[in-house]
Each structure stands twice: as C-alpha cells, then as structure tokens.
Prior knowledge:
The chain is of the alpha/beta class. The chain is 40% helix and 12% strand. The chain folds into two domains: 1-33, no CATH class; 43-377, TIM Barrel (Alpha-Beta Barrel), CATH 3.20.20. It contains twelve helices and eight strands. Helix 4 links the parallel strand 2 (70-76) and strand 3. Helix 3 (53-66) crosses helix 4 (95-104), helix 6 (158-172) runs parallel beside helix 9 (242-266) and helix 10 runs parallel beside helix 11 (338-350). The structure holds zinc ion. Zinc ion (ZN) binds next to helix 7.
Amino acid sequence: MKKRQFLKTLGHSALALAVTDVLLEACSRPQQQINRNQLKSWIWIRPIEGLSKDGWKDKLAKASDAGIDGILMEVYNSTWSFFENEHLPLKEDILAKAAPACHELGMEFHAWMWTMPCNIPAVIENHPHWYAVNGLDESVLDKPAYVDYYRFLCPRHPEVQDFIRKNVSALARIPEIDGIHLDYVRLPDVILAEALQPKYDIVQDREYPQYDYCYSAYCRNIFKEETGIDPLADLANPSSNDAWRQFRFDSITLLVNDILVPEAKKYDKQISAAVFPNWQSVRQQWHRWDLDAFYPMLYNNFYNENIDWIRKQTQSGVDALKNNAPIFSGVYVSELSAEQLEKAYQAAIDGGAKGVSFFDYGAISDQKWKTISKLISS
Ligand SMILES: [Zn+2]
C-alpha cells in the first residue's frame, strides 16, 4: 500500500496516529532492503563503424565485466540504419555483429531506434506532407525548432504511422534481438529543459507557437471532427486549451499503444522507450503506454537539479505508471563525478527503479567503469 493511500484510509483517529509511524516504517522497509540481484543495469551505446564481431566483443566485454545486463544499441538514427533491411538507408550492418557478441557475453540486446524524426532525404523530398507543423502553420521542413535534425513527422498521418510501424517491424522480425527501444517517441520540446535554453540563446517562460506542434492539416481536421474546433482558426491561445493539449498527448499514445506495441508483440519482442521527466513539454504521456519497460532520462544537470531530483522523478514515474512495468532510471554519466554517479544510482533505487541505465558507453572512463562495477555488485 502506498503511503498516501494508507493515510487516506486511516483518516485522523487517535489510534491511527499512534500506529502510523510503525506501519509507515514497515511499508518502506522492503525498499531499503531491496535485493540487488533483482535489479538490472543497462547501457546505451552508439554504433561504431568498421568494427568486426570480435571487435564488438572486446568493446562490450567492458560492460558485461562490470555486470551490465543489457545493451541498448542505436541502430536507426533517423537518417541511417545499421541493420539489414529493405526499408531504410543502410550504412553498415552493425547489428549482425554486435548482437551475437552481446549474447555470447550473456547480455540482452535491444535495438534503439529514433521514432518520430525522419531525416532521410528521399522521404523529405517525396513526402513533405508527412511532417509536423507548428502553431504558426510552419512545417518542420522549413523551420525546424532548435536544430536542423528536428524534422519530426506528424503522428496522426496514416502514411507516417505505417512508415514507423514498418521500422519497428523491420527490427522485430530479426531473431537476434531481444527488444526494441523507442527514442524520440514524442513531438518537439515546446519548452526545452532549463539548462539547455541558454545554449540556444532562448527564454521559454511559456509555450510559444513556433515550438508547439502538431498543427498539421491531418491533426487539425481530426480534432475538428471530434470537437467542432479548429485549434488554429478558432482558438486565441490554442496551447492553453486542455482538450487540444490532450489530443496531442493522445496522438503519440495511440501510435505507441495501437500500432507499435502490437507490431513488436507479433514477433514476440519486448518494447520499451526512453522518456522525459517533463513529459508535458514533449507531449509524451508515457504513463499510459503499454510498454514492457520505461527508461526516463533523468539528466539532472539539464534541469539545473541536484541528485535527489533523480529519486523524486523516479518515484513520481513509478506512482503515475498505469501498468506495473519496470522503470530503469537513465543517468547522464559525463556530467557526473564518480561520487555523484554512486549517489545517482542510489537515488534511482530509493525512488523505486528496478535498475539504472547509463548514458552512454562512450562517456564512461575506466574509473567510472570501476564505480559502475562496484555499484552493481554491492
Ligand atoms: Zn499532425
């Protein structure tokens, strides 16, 4: 029973107050005595071109030696794929070498793919109407927010939904992978994380229309059919309209729950996602998604927050999640000292995470590998 529900149940009787402390201690005890053997540790890793299978085995052995249970490897980055398929431009079939190496070392292999952005030249050229549109009626193709690669697709367009379904399908049918890991499964950030705003020389004290998506004809028409309102023509301040905001949350949720999860399950594959703590800003209501695991990216430095924020955010994710899937808290290794890394790991576990995912392989020095190994084995 959760503390909050427990207190509500008890009400304010004198007896209740007398026993509350004892019972609350009992409630929280299992968390403190959590069995580390039941936790899982993960690592995100980017593709490295030109490595042989043995080369991959050498690389990944660092992770397995430290006690990492699973690898999340980027095999589609919105421009290039790194696995054999007939659907996306292929750079090199890295998956065919890395996945068997990973399994020989006793770790799971999950294929990390970008979901909504698409920077494939042929798609940009042939399907400009697939792309998301902002509150000024500007396509991401003409005015991408923040960076050139922020070319997000419209989540409600049926051809887009089919394109992304095929991306998942191309991975799910590969016998060597254990799961699919969705990244960028969202709209562009209407408000960037606080510490990132100065990097782009912008101040976002509220939601501005040039960063607010998706106002495509598809999305507006569906919303109008449901409500009678065209958000662009009929609302003075559409971003503040609750129904329109929920519609955007639902656009991503429908894609995940009704299209991508069933595709992965058709091939009996796990499916997970990297998700945001400030989920409203990226229209990512992940607590309602039917995934097998969630990896919130709890990069405290991006939000000008301390390490304890990782515990609080993990806890709020656990509390909000509709299914009982595990949460693996993501930590940003390059911004943390070895000592902070230890605290971040503990904060995630104290918040109810079933383990931690480290971002990313390339940022881990030999010293930090020692810290990770110690944390996992202690
Ligand atoms: Zn749209």
